[in-house]
Write a structure and sequence with these properties.
f41 fragment of flagellin, N-terminal domain, mainly alpha, 307 residues
């Protein structure tokens, strides 16, 4: 078999080129800390990595939604706690105003404080979140929940929509509550035994009117209705607490899922530095050996053989 000089050079060049290519790829892996630099290196493995990253992005989106929900629920909880505190003070004023020993002037003084509390309650009912959306307007987040009317008490202008946000593949959580869920109307029975619904602020305004006109019956009725208003706020707070517990539980689930996904992704994508460094050293030695052999072989010719 005859081996031409051209073939000898071609084979030697191809061998060194392959070793150099492998060495370059290993060095690139070490530089990036990844097993796969190009998808073409391992299509199946690259597809798995892409799928895992897609799932992780979805988990991040769910976590972002949970953070938003939690911030909103905490805002609602803080607001309703303030409402509850104001109602406690309103109850104290109503009980004091129901005392028959008070004069009309004394009741007017109590009415002034009650009016201030009522205005504070209205302001709290129209609280906005960090995005400038009204907390208790249902889906009409740009519309104040309760609006003053020309000849009457503030009325609810939101809707009854409860908005849910997906926080998992099979899980969603309500992100809001309506104004009538938190500022619940009361049922008032007239002298004929007929029950009618009276709005949250209408009940308080009637109580203020009773104090201003020194009407003991209206004051005592208002004091009783304040208990119902307080109960409605307390129930809304309980619902918020339940939803916050669900948010915390779902956050824990997402954290566990994310950790498992990242562990799986790391085992497929991340580079084993110890193995890669050993491999690179072997490739460098192979390249040096190939270059040394080529240098010696390239100097041989027929005259050297004759000598």
């Amino acid at each position: 078999m005859k081996i031409s000089t051209h073939l000898l050079f071609d084979r030697a060049s191809a061998q060194m080129s392959n070793v150099q290519t492998n060495l370059t790829q290993t060095q690139a892996q070490l530089a990036q800390g990844k097993q796969i630099i190009n998808a073409s290196d391992a299509p199946n493995q690259a597809a798995t990595i892409q799928r895992l990253k897609s799932v992780l992005n979805k988990q991040d989106s769910y976590q972002s939604s949970l953070n938003t929900i939690k911030a909103r629920l905490e805002g609602e909880d803080t607001t309703l706690k303030s409402v509850s505190d104001l109602l406690v003070r309103a109850k104290e004023i109503a009980v004091q105003g129901a005392n028959d020993t008070l004069s009309a002037a004394d009741r007017k003084s109590l009415a002034t404080e009650m009016q201030a509390l009522r205005d504070q309650l209205l302001s709290l009912a129209n609280t906005k979140d960090s995005n400038g959306n009204y907390l208790f307007s249902g889906s009409r987040v740009k519309q104040p929940a309760f609006v003053e009317t020309a000849n009457g008490s503030p009325v609810y202008m939101g809707d009854q929509t409860r908005m849910n946000v997906r926080v998992g593949d099979q899980r969603s959580i309500p992100i809001n509550r309506t104004g009538t869920d938190a500022f619940v109307p009361v049922a008032r029975t007239d002298t004929n035994g007929k029950a009618t619904g009276v709005g949250f602020f209408e009940s308080i305004d009637n109580l203020i009117a009773g104090l201003n006109h020194s009407n003991g019956n209206d004051v005592r009725r208002g004091a009783g209705e304040l208990d119902a208003l307080q109960l409605g706020v307390s129930l809304a707070q309980a619902q918020i607490g339940t939803n916050l517990n669900v948010v915390d539980q779902q956050t824990s689930v997402l954290e566990d899922t994310t950790l498992n996904l990242k562990t799986t992704l790391s085992s497929i994508e991340d580079l084993d530095y110890a193995s890669a460094i050993t491999k690179m050293n072997q490739q460098m030695m192979s390249l040096e050996a190939a270059q040394s052999s080529f240098a010696k072989v390239s100097q041989l010719n027929l005259f050297n053989f004759i000598k």
